[in-house]
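Q: Sequence in, structure out?
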Amino acid sequence: SKMAAAAASGADVSKWVVVYPAYLNNKKKVSEGRRLPKSKAVDNPTLQEIVNVGKALGLELVPEPQKAYPKDFTQPGRVRFHLKKDDRTPMKENIQNKQQLLEAIALGISKISNRATSSGASSGSSAASSAAQGGSASKKKKGKK
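A: Exactly. Output:
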């Protein structure tokens, strides 16, 4: 896939910055991969949202849906962003480094007004986990009797 992506953009994407959805997810602990303060992170961001916001920011990017974050392989996908030109100057003045990129993306996602939040409408996997939580709650009630 690296070959295909590199061929598509004529660039070596292995040097590009990698962003996993977990970096932006306010449902994650820092130990689980969150890289932003909760105040800036967003509810369960999806790969597609990161791609859409990245494009809206005018950044070159390559989605890698088959890659998964080692700490959280339940949510596959990551995006590579072209932050720096070959001479190391930023592509975008307002995004100098990875931290600013993460903040810009999270901000962009938080502004998507009609996004499916943690109800699980977007990914399906979170819907399953909330159903599972409901199941465990009912088990607890049975135990109390």
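The beta strands are 17-19, 61-69, 72-81.
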